[in-house]
What does this fold into?
Amino acid sequence: MQEIEWMDRVRSTYAALRPSEQKVADFVLANPERCAKASIGELAEWVQVSQPTVIRFVQALGFDGYRHFKYCLARSQGAQGPAGHFEHLAGFDLKPWDRMEDLPLKVVKVAGGLLEETLRSISQEELKRAVHLLATARTIDIYGVENSRTPAEDLLTKLTFLGLNCRLHTDPYLQQISASHLGVADAAVAFSHSGCSMDTVKALKQARRSGAGTVLVSSQKQPLLARYADVFLRAGGSETVIYGNAIFSRIPDLAVVEMLYTGIILSDYERFSRNLDQSGAVIADRGYTKG
It folds into this structure.
């Protein structure tokens, strides 16, 4: 429902309303800004009608409930919506009247869409190049800040299990310092949803300047960071911003991490499966057993 339609809905439905509901309509038409901030109890008191009358009024207009009506009314006034409500999360469709039981499907559909976009966006040739670069590197630096720290840390864990020498500093200054000590036998991997995070740009730029092979994982089509990447792995979710669907940006990035992980194993199955067994044996006694 378009928020700008509410006045037309009131006017077109007016004749079919009960007299008490028409009183609500008259008040709302005369005081839209005031009503956008009012609770259902306040509106009923101002108009001198019952709360059920207000509910019947908004339902007669085709709204799901008072929250839906109030939300659209506030939006038409140029507001962000009722206090404490998300407007639209800049891409993720979350409204004040959504039901909690509908959220699992909504979230999974968004995640599934991002994974499908990743499958369409990823370059097989670039993936092969990235796998070779990491599998043969002497040392691997990994960079990422904020949300991008999650896939960065996941890659660190997986590559360590494979017996590869890799490091990730949580301090972005140390990421840049670490990059300055790389050489031609080394590699660096940067994660950035926006493709232009300042600290990540500086780290990857420094790694390239040091002679290391560089890999970028980003959702953007032409990210700034691509200037300093020998290999660019494009994930899904390019149209999202800092809020909304960007909250899910880790999902395609983590899928790319799995591609790199399994690709490295496949590149030398005997070596890396043996390293995995060795890593697993070291921590085999760390879990609780029955008894």
Observations:
- Strands lie at 140-143, 166-167, 187-191, 213-218, 231-234.
- The chain has a mean pLDDT of 85.
- The CA atoms of residues 218 and 281 lie 35 Å apart.
